[in-house]
Amino acid sequence: GEVGCGCGSALIPVLRDNPTANAVACDVSGTAIQVFRDAAMPGAGIDPSRVHLSVDDFPSTSPFKDNSLDVVMIIFTLSAFHPRDMKRVIEAVRRGLKPGGLVLVRDYGLYDMAQVR
Fold first, then answer.
1. How many Å apart are CA 79 and CA 115, to the nearest integer?
2. Rounded CA gap, 20 and 76, in Å?
3. Residue-level pLDDT at 36
4. Most Cβ neighbours (<10 Å): which of 11, 23, 72, 96?
C-alpha cells in the first residue's frame, strides 16, 4: 500500500521489481492519480489490474481494508499532514496492516534544503 502515491515514482519501481505484487494506493490529487494510471503504469509496463488507485482524503477516507497489507509506504507524505493529524494517519495505516506488517517512511528532515524551500 501507499499513502500519497502521487504519480507513482515510489510504487512503480517496487511493482516492476516484484512482478507478483499487487498494490493499493491513494493520493489527494486526482490529477496525480490520472497521470499514474494513464502514463506511469503503461510506460513501466505495469498491468493496471495489479494496482487499485483512488483519490482519498486520507485518513478520513482510506482504500485500505483492515489487516490486508504486508507493507505500507509513506514517502514524502507524512510531513504534508498537519501535525495534529499525524497520529490519525499512522493509526489508519496500522489498521490496514497485517500482523507483522511494515511501515516504510521517508520524509524531509528538519532543515533539509527541500523542506526549507
1. 9
2. 26
3. 97
4. 11
Alpha carbon 46 to chain centroid, angstroms: 16
| Exposure class string for 18-51: b at 16+ Cβ within 10 A, else e | eeeeebbbbbeeeebbebbeeebbeeeebeeeeb
pLDDT digits (tens, 9 = 90+) for 69-113: 999 999 999 999 999 999 999 999 999 999 999 999 999 877 777
Nearest to 5 by CA among 42, 47, 51, 65: 51
Q: Say if pTM beats, i.e. exceeds, 0.85.
A: yes
Over the chain, what is the mean pLDDT? 94
SS3 41: helix
CA distance 18 to 11: 11
